[in-house]
Amino acid sequence: VQLQASGGGLVQAGGSLRLSCAASGTIFRINVMGWYRQAPGKERELVANFREGLGTNYADSVKGRFTISKDSAKNTLALQMDNLKPEDTAVYYCNLMNIGGSSWWGQGTQVTVSS
């Protein structure tokens, strides 16, 4: 299984970016699909995810600005990021986890927001 993330880039504060993640291979019983980010010198943190049976979950810092979406039939995941702020600058990673607890990570895509 491989996850390919794309869509990062450089944008001014207030701008928008859309990240995409495509999963290749067969993953049985996906339980959680989500996006994480890691800024320089900081730990990786959850941005948003879908949890089977529990719906969507967003970090407080992105609520109202970011929207996560998925296409389960195609095993794709997207993150629409609006009203970006300099503090959103980080490497963004997509993640899938199945019901057995196995986890897969994408390679990361850089998002840089200038002030």
Question: Helices and strands in order, then pairings?
Answer:
Elements: E1 2-6, E2 9-12, E3 17-24, E4 30-38, E5 45-51, E6 55-58, E7 66-71, E8 76-81, E9 90-98, E10 103-105, E11 109-114
Parallel strand pairs: 2-11
Antiparallel strand pairs: 1-3, 3-8, 4-5, 4-9, 5-6, 7-8, 9-10, 9-11
How would you explain this protein's 3D organization?
The protein has 115 residues and is an all-beta fold. Strands 2, 4, 5, 6, 9, 10 and 11 form a seven-stranded mixed sheet that branches. The protein has strands at residues 2-6, 9-12, 17-24, 30-38, 45-51, 55-58, 66-71, 76-81, 90-98, 103-105, 109-114. The chain has no helices and eleven strands.
Termini separation (Å)? 37 Å
Number of discrete helical segments = 0
- Average per-residue pLDDT, rounded, comes to 93
Look at the helices and sheets and give the structural class. mainly beta
Indicate the overall shape: globular
Describe what is shown at a glance:
With 115 residues, the chain is mainly β.
